[in-house]
Design goal:
CATH architecture of the largest domain: Orthogonal Bundle
Number of helices: 13
Strand content: under 5%
Order of helices and strands: HHHHHHHHHHHHH
Shape: elongated
Helix content: 40-55%
Radius of gyration: 22 Å
CATH class of the largest domain: Mainly Alpha
Number of strands: 0
Low-confidence stretches: 1-32
CATH topology of the largest domain: Endonuclease Iii, domain 2
Length: 272
């Protein structure tokens, strides 16, 4: 009697248990990729610290493929312009800020000039950004502090930046990471929301989220990882209805299915 041939086990398909080794997406901004089409909600209830770290870094690599042009979307030429633009970006869009700052900096090109600005003129320039009276006071106040305490130069250290009126860690990290090349995690709305949605943190406290993400990602990647999360939040992983079926990290996401899972309909939702 001829020996029986061993039966091969079927090739495992992507799913929660295979998430760490699958390749969710090709990096194309227009397609969902095979893993997004196969994805199921990932169970991370028993995820170890090492597994979470590996998943976070895999997510960042896949977002880098999807958004190779991720960057700070505020226009600036120096640290002062970025600092002011970041303060102005509160409660408005980067596009609106970029439409306003050329006029602002043409009239007030440095901290000394902005500190001495006529409040009514400054408010009128900033009107399109919303909350223009408060923003006018904020940028004039921080400009005065830069002149008086730092000789007219924006400081390049976190502990000094946060002493400026209206400048918190989020704003300071934007300036440090993009104007000074000092790595920092920017805990803006998108970063906070996606960090929780991806279960990379359980907190909504910006300081805790910054700490949690910092522990998962290499320090050298902090600034760009923030940009990639922001790009993903603006273009794919929307707050109310994410485009799950077109997401490059669908197989690594414990919130998969919170939005549209059909690949074609999801692709139609993508922005940018």
């Amino acid at each position: 009697m001829a020996p029986t041939r061993p039966v091969r086990s079927p090739r495992p398909t992507a799913g929660p248990g295979r998430a760490a080794t699958s390749r969710p997406g090709s990096g194309s901004s227009s397609g969902a990729g095979p893993a997004a089409r196969r994805a199921r909600r990932l169970d991370v209830t028993a995820e170890s610290s090492l597994a979470r770290t590996r998943r976070a870094r895999r997510i960042d690599r896949l977002l880098a493929e999807r958004y190779p042009d991720a960057r700070c979307e505020l226009d600036f030429r120096n640290p002062f312009e970025l600092l002011v633009a970041t303060v102005l970006s509160a409660q408005t869009t980067d596009v609106r800020v970029n439409q306003t700052t050329p006029t602002l900096f043409a009239r007030y090109p440095d901290p000394a000039a902005l500190a001495a600005a006529d409040p009514e003129v400054l408010e009128e320039i900033l009107r399109p950004t919303g909350f223009f009276r408060a923003k006018a006071r904020a940028v004039a106040g921080l400009s005065q502090a830069i002149v008086e305490r730092f000789g007219g130069e924006v400081p390049g250290a976190l502990d000094e930046l946060v002493t400026l009126p209206g400048v918190g860690r989020k704003t300071a990290n934007v300036v440090l990471g993009n104007a000074f090349g000092v790595p920092g995690i920017t805990t803006d709305t998108h970063v906070l929301r996606l960090s929780r949605r991806l279960d990379l943190t359980t907190s909504d406290d910006p300081l805790v989220v910054e700490r949690d993400l910092g522990a998962l990602l290499p320090r050298r990647d902090w600034t760009m990882a923030s940009h990639r999360l922001i790009f993903h939040g603006r273009r794919t992983c929307f707050a109310r209805r994410p485009a799950c079926g077109a997401c490059p990290v669908a197989a690594l996401c414990p919130s998969y299915g919170a939005g549209e899972t059909d690949p074609e309909r999801a692709r139609a939702m993508l922005k940018g």
